[in-house]
Design goal:
By secondary structure, the chain is mainly alpha-helical. Helix content is 63%, strand content 2%. The protein has one domain. It binds fe (ii) ion (2 copies).
Length: 310
């Protein structure tokens, strides 16, 4: 019986448990992070960026057996909570076009990155070519909708929020810095959420979340590495200050705390069990720990090598 892998070996989070308490879930999260957010993986994703500058190619998804997605593939998480997280995630993912075009404008100082994120526009502002980031991200909302429909038999349309538009000050570099940090923080938030959801699923449902997580890890890594190259002299304190600081004139632009509060609201955080909350916080911490180890290997020479020749 060659290809009858037991469900235990098929599960992407190393091991399934019949019940899932704090320690089991934490073990699954840890093995997912060790596998998908390994330092070598992060290097690989960043080294891919100059290749994508030269010849943009969307990362292909593996085939997914959508028909088999069912509620019994949810582990250790109330199905209703899972559904409200799906809704929260799709409301945060959409409308991707708005996000890419705002980011493209902040990136005008870096044409290659601007193209990667937001494509190219003509003289009258018409979109001539999609950015790679948009091509990959625009698959996310439909995938979440498909999961939702498969689990509930109901159709759903995401709320289309209005995206904060491009609001430049007289300091383009500072604008880019603030915008970029915010962008990285959103990709990081999405990465952690999808990894956490992978730890609470199995089968085809987990397969979809794996693709979403891999896309977010890919983008987060590229934005982060590019950010470190563009702003080499920023310490941890500076980052923290920028993220938390609410300058009144900048309030309309990027306020991480506001974004987080909105996200937690849409994810129906109040209905989560204590174990759910603690394991999500663990995911955030352990992922950041891993990113920080990788960050410390991003020497100026390495980044120079990567980006200068291109
Ligand atoms: Fe996404
Ligand atoms: Fe993303």
């Amino acid at each position: 019986m060659l290809n009858t892998l037991s469900p235990i070996t098929e599960d992407l989070a190393s091991q399934s448990y019949p019940s899932s308490h704090y320690l089991q879930t934490q073990h699954r999260i840890r093995s997912l992070i060790d596998k998908y957010i390994a330092v070598e993986k992060l290097h690989d994703r960043l080294q891919d960026l100059p290749i994508q500058f030269a010849n943009p190619q969307p990362r292909p998804w593996k085939p997914i057996d959508w028909q088999t997605i069912s509620r019994n593939q949810i582990i250790g998480l109330d199905a209703e909570v899972f559904l409200s997280i799906l809704i929260g995630a799709m409301d945060t993912e959409a409308p991707i076009r708005g996000y890419t075009q705002t980011s493209r404008q902040y990136l005008e100082l870096h044409p290659q990155m601007a193209r990667f994120v937001g494509g190219t526009v003509g003289k009258d502002g018409e979109l001539l070519e999609l950015g790679l980031w948009e091509k990959e991200e625009r698959q996310h909302t439909p995938a979440l909708i498909k999961i939702y429909t498969q689990l509930t038999g109901e159709k759903i349309t995401p709320k289309l929020r209005t995206v904060r538009s491009y609001l430049p000050t007289d300091d383009a570099k500072e604008d880019l810095y603030r915008h970029g940090l915010h962008r990285i923080a959103t990709e990081y938030g999405a990465t952690c959420l999808y990894i956490w959801l992978m730890a609470h699923t199995t089968g085809a449902l987990q397969d979809v979340l794996e693709e979403l997580a891999q896309d977010e890890i890919n983008h987060m890594t590229k934005f982060w590495g590019f950010g470190v190259w563009t702003f080499p002299d920023t310490g941890l304190m500076g980052i923290g200050r920028t993220l938390i600081k609410t300058r009144s004139q900048n309030y309309q632009r990027n306020n991480l705390m506001r974004t987080l509060r909105r996200m937690m609201g849409t994810l129906n955080w109040n209905a989560w069990s204590l174990t759910n909350k603690t394991t999500l916080l663990f995911t955030f911490t352990y992922t950041m720990h891993r990113l920080w180890s990788w960050n410390n290997t991003l020497t100026p020479e390495y980044l120079q090598d990567l980006f200068e020749t291109n």
